[in-house]
Design a protein that fits this description.
Length: 42
């Protein structure tokens, strides 16, 4: 029983980590491109 619960938490933790880090990567890419174009215009 405890082992099954631990496996579920491990799977959920992995999914949550993926979902949480994905937006940060997208935002970092957007800000990275925005800063690049800003420097290019200046």
């Amino acid at each position: 029983m405890l082992r099954a619960i631990a496996d579920v938490f491990r799977a959920v933790g992995g999914a949550v980590a993926t979902v949480v880090t994905l937006p940060f990567r997208i935002v970092a890419r957007i800000f990275g491109g925005a800063s690049d174009t800003a420097h290019g215009h200046h």
